[in-house]
Structures are given as C-alpha cells and as structure tokens.
C-alpha cells in the first residue's frame, strides 16, 4: 500500500520530531555520563589514582631511595639494584623533559624548575658520584657518607614534593569546577537550540501542508478527470505565480494536448492502414533476397567445414559472400589458419616432450643403480657402528668396576687418616702447624676440584671428536701439571713438619711422617677415583652418542631404499609418458598443415635444444 504525500509528510515530520527529542535525550544522557564529575569521568579518575598508587612515579624518589638502601645493606643484590637505579634515572630524565615542555600552569612549572627538579637532580648526583663508586669498591666509610647524604637529599625532596602536590591539587580542583560550569552552560544552550528547531520544524510542516500538499491533491483529482477523457474540466490555480501555478499551466497544456490527440488519432488510424499494406510488400521482396544470400553462404561454409573434418587444415574460402556474411567467411578463414598454426605447434612440442622423456628414462635408470649401491654402503656402515657401540659399552662397564674398587680404596684411606688424625689431635704443641697444614690441604682440594673440571671437559671433547684417545691425552697432560702442584704443596707440608720437629720427640716425628704419607695416599686415591669416574661418564656418553648415530644411519638406510623404489617407479612413469608422446605425434601426423605453418614447425624444432635431466652423482 502506497502512502500519499500528505501521510508521508505527517509520518516524516513525526519521525523527525521524535528523532530530535530522542537525540536531545541521548545528548543529555551522554553529557551527564561523560562530563567532568560524571560516572565515566569518576571511573577514569579512580583507575588513574590506582595506577598512581601502584606504579612508582619517576619524579618521586621513594623507590630509588629504597633500592639505594638495599644496595648499601646487601652486597649480593647490589649489582641488580644498581641496574634498576640506572633505568629509573633514565626514566626520570625522560619525564623531566616531558614536564619541562608541557602546558602545565605557570606556577606549577616554576615550582618544578626551581624546587622539584633541582632537589631530584641533587639526589641522583649523589647516587652517581658517591653511592655507586662506594658500593663497587665496597668502601664502607664512603658508603656511610653517601647514605647520610642520600638521607638528607631524600628528606629535602619529600618536603618539596609536598608543596608541589598542594599546588597540583589546587589546580585540579579549579579546572574541575570550571569544566562543570562550562558543561552545564553548553547543555542548557543545546537544549534550547533543540527545542527551537523542533518548533520551527512543526511550523514548517503546517505551512507545507496548507500551501503545497492541499493544492497538489486537488491537481491530482483534475488530472484523473483528464485521464478519463473529460477535456471539459476546469484547471484550478492558473493565476498563482509559484510552483503550483506552473504545475496548473502544465496541466492546461496536457488538457489541450488531449483534445488534439483525439483529432489526430482518427487521421493516424487511416495512415497506419495504408502504411501496413506497403510495408508487407517490401518485406516479402527483402525476405526472398535474404534467403538467396543465406543459401549461398551456408553452401560455401559447409564445404569448408567438410574439408576441416577430413583433416585438411589448408582450407580457405576464396569465393566472396554477400556483404552481411563476408565477416563470417573472414572469421572461418582466420579460425582455420589459427587452428593449423596451433596444431603445428602442438606437434613440435610433442616431439620435444618425447625426446625429454627418453632422457629422463635413461637418467632414472642410472640414478636407480647409484641409489642401490649407496644403500649397500649405508648397511655396511650401520653394522660397523653397531660393533663399535658394543665395544664402547663394554669399556664403560669395566670403567664402572674400576670406579667401585677405587671407592673401596678411598674409604680405607679415609679410615687410616682418621686414626692418624686422632693421634695428632692428642699432641697439643702442634696446633699452629696443623692450622697451616689445613690451608695447604685446602689448596690441594681446590687443585683436585680443578682436576675434576678438566677431566669432565676432556670427556666432552672426546665425545665431540669421536676419538676417545685424543681427548684423554689432553686430560692426562693437565693431570700431570696438577700432580706437580700437588707435589709442591706436599713439600710445603714437609717443611712445616720439619719446623715442628724441634718441639716434639721422636715418636711425634714418626706420627707426623705417617700422617703425611696417609694424607698423600688419600689425596692420590681421591684423584684416581675422580679420573676413573670421569672416564666412566665419558664412556657412557660415548655409548649413548654412538647409539644415536647408529639409529640415524639405519634411518638413512631405510630412506635410501625407499628412494630406490621411488626411482624405479619414476622410470616406469617416464617410459609410459614417452609412449603417449609418440602416440600424440602419430595422431597429429594425420593433419595437413599450411606450408608456412609446417616451415615454422621445422624452425622451432631445430631451435629447441634437447632436454637433459641432470641427476646428482
């Protein structure tokens, strides 16, 4: 059902009024929600306050001061804390540049420039010039001085920050009050403007209904009468000088045209009858001539198609057709020419493909032979690796047995050392010499530890090189050097014992020598135990590595055998492709090609180099 202009005007006006009222309500709601002091604003302020409470601000020195105190109290965390202080200092410098160039009120920027930034720079200067060097040098007096200076600088900074915070809070409250006043004023102005717009819209709709829609409805009734054939109806609003008057003048023209139409229709009916008779006669003559030309064209085209069907691609329609069918003859000749050229190209390409497939077949056979030989070599390699793995595993077991025996000897030596140590403890006059011997024994232990590390490195080197002998040779050299250092420490012990001989009796001398000998035996037994343990560990790692290499070689053997099968399949496929290419060449040989197409085919065949499939050797 179509709506009239009157109804459309009323509906559209109502929609616009409702939309304006709705827009005004949405605008008022949005302003109420998002203005300064509204729910959304309060939510944002709350989150920013939370972030300010959780994340330490770069200008406030609470976190740097805490890190400085921790660095001065706990040296093990000083390096990490100094790095964090460097990052905080860099962040402060970045924020300082931002706030210096900001649009903050002049009083706040002046406070930052004169009070906040100087006190903060003073604090960081103490950190960089006093605290860091003192902590790195572990200079306790300098650390104490830096601590006192930092405490004074931090107290000065906190006092300045309290003053700056008061200024900032006062400025925020003033800006918030001004924003609330401005938002209320703008909201009132927007509401007045919206209500004024709605009133103007309603007044315009009423005037449009009176001045335009009513006259248009009456003109519509008049035009309905004219459509029904009543040319005696009077046209209203002819004396108006607006658009309605122009429309009335146009309807008057339609009225006069309708009257003229009635007169002309009778004359047109008679003329149409006479024209139909003449047209039928001319149409009969034209159809006879067109049938003759069509017959001539179809006859020539049928002959050409028969020659194409028999494989003669040299066919050409030389006899001219009538002008309307001359394009069809030219299209047929062009199609026959392109078909001959295309089939000649296909024939040439088929020959090239046939040659290439034969080359692929030959090279595939060669590749299959080489792949079989490679598979046999990999199988032999896998067997050799498996034998080597067994030998290395056996050596690892023997090394474990030797390690167990060394454990027993080590425990026996330790028990003997305990007996001698109890005898030595009973002698009160050798306490000072015993303390010095403990230092030397500590040095010997450190040398034994280094010997263990060198033995482990030798085991890693032997595992990587694949030749255990080279790695163990390097370890043996390092062990000999450590043995020399051990002998030197033993000589020092002997010198200390000799200095104590003047203060003890002959029995003490014998006990000292027995203790020295047992200590040397225990040290050597421990060194032997560590070396044997390193050898056992290296042998186990070699056994694991050889097992992995053996598995990898077996996998390569399987892949090589699969490749051999795929090469055989490829060889069969290339042979089948060569047969199909020969068959295609035979089929294309049934056609007769134009002389220029045949010559072009020979030239392309001569120019195309033979395809050679290169396989890896």
UniProtKB/TrEMBL annotation:
PROSITE patterns: CHEMOTAXIS_TRANSDUC_2, HAMP. Keywords: Chemotaxis, Coiled coil, Membrane, Transducer, Transmembrane, Transmembrane helix. GO terms for biological process: chemotaxis; signal transduction. It is found in: Membrane. It holds the Pfam family HAMP. Residues 349-578 form the Methyl-accepting transducer domain. InterPro entries: Chemotax_Me-accpt_rcpt (IPR004090), HAMP_dom (IPR003660), MCP_chemotaxis (IPR051310), MCPsignal_dom (IPR004089). Belongs to the methyl-accepting chemotaxis (MCP) protein family. This is Methyl-accepting chemotaxis protein. It comes from Shinella granuli.
């Amino acid at each position: 059902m179509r709506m009239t202009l009157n109804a459309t005007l009323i509906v559209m006006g109502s929609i616009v009024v409702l939309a304006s009222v709705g827009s005004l309500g949405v605008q008022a709601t949005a302003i109420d929600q998002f203005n300064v002091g509204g729910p959304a604003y309060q939510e944002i302020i709350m989150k920013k306050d939370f972030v300010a409470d959780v994340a330490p601000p770069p200008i406030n020195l609470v976190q740097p001061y805490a890190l400085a105190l921790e660095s001065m109290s706990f040296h093990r965390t000083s390096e990490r804390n100094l790095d964090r202080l460097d990052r905080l200092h860099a962040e402060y410098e970045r924020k300082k540049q931002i706030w210096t160039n900001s649009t903050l009120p002049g009083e706040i920027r002046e406070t930052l420039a004169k009070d906040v930034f100087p006190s903060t720079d003073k604090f960081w200067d103490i950190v960089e010039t006093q605290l860091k060097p003192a902590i790195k040098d572990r200079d306790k007096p300098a650390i104490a001085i830096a601590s006192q200076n930092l405490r004074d600088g931090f107290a000065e900074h906190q006092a300045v920050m309290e003053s700056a915070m008061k200024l900032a809070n006062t400025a925020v409250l003033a800006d918030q009050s001004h924003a609330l006043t401005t938002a209320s004023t703008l909201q009132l102005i927007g509401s007045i403007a919206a209500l004024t717009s709605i009133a103007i819209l309603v007044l315009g709709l009423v005037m449009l209904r009176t001045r335009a829609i009513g006259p248009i409805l009456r003109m519509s009734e008049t035009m309905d009468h004219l459509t029904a054939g009543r040319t005696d109806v009077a046209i209203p609003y002819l004396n108006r000088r607006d658009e309605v008057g122009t429309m009335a003048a146009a309807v008057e023209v339609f009225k006069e045209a309708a009257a003229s139409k009635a007169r002309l229709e009778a004359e047109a009916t008679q003329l149409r009858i006479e024209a139909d008779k003449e047209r039928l006669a001319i149409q009969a003559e034209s159809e006879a001539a067109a049938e003759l030309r069509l017959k001539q064209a179809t006859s020539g085209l049928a002959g050409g198609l028969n020659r194409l069907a028999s494989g003669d691609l040299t066919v050409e329609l030389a006899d001219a057709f009538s002008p309307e069918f001359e394009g069809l003859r030219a299209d047929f000749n062009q199609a026959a020419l392109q078909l001959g050229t295309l089939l000649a190209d296909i024939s040439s390409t088929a020959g090239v493909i046939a040659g290439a497939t034969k080359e692929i077949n030959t090279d595939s056979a060669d590749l299959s032979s080489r792949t079989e030989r490679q598979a046999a070599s990999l199988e032999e390699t896998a067997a050799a690796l498996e034998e080597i793995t067994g030998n290395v595993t056996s050596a690892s077991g023997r090394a474990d047995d030797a390690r167990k025996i060394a454990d027993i000897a080590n425990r026996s030596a330790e028990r003997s050392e305990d007996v001698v140590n109890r005898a030595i403890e009973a002698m009160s006059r050798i306490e000072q010499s015993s303390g010095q011997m403990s230092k030397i024994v500590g040095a010997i232990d450190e040398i034994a530890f280094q010997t263990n590390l060198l033995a482990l490195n030798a085991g890693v080197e032997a595992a990587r090189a694949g030749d255990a002998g080279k790695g163990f040779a390097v370890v043996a050299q390092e062990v000999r050097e450590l043995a020399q250092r051990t002998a030197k420490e033993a000589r020092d012990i002997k010198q200390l014992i000799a200095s104590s001989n003047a203060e003890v009796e002959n029995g003490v001398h014998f006990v000292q020598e027995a203790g020295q000998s047992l200590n040397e035996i225990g040290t050597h037994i421990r060194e032997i135990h560590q070396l044997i343990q390193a050898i056992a560990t290296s042998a186990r790692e070699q056994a694991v590595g050889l097992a992995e290499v053996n598995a990898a070689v077996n996998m390569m053997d399987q892949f090589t055998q699969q490749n051999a099968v795929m090469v055989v399949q490829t060889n069969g496929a290339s042979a089948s492709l060569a047969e199909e290419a020969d068959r295609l060449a035979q089929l294309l040989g049934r056609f007769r090609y134009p002389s220029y197409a045949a010559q072009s085919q020979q030239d392309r065949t001569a120019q195309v180099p033979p395809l050679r499939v290169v396989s890896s050797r």
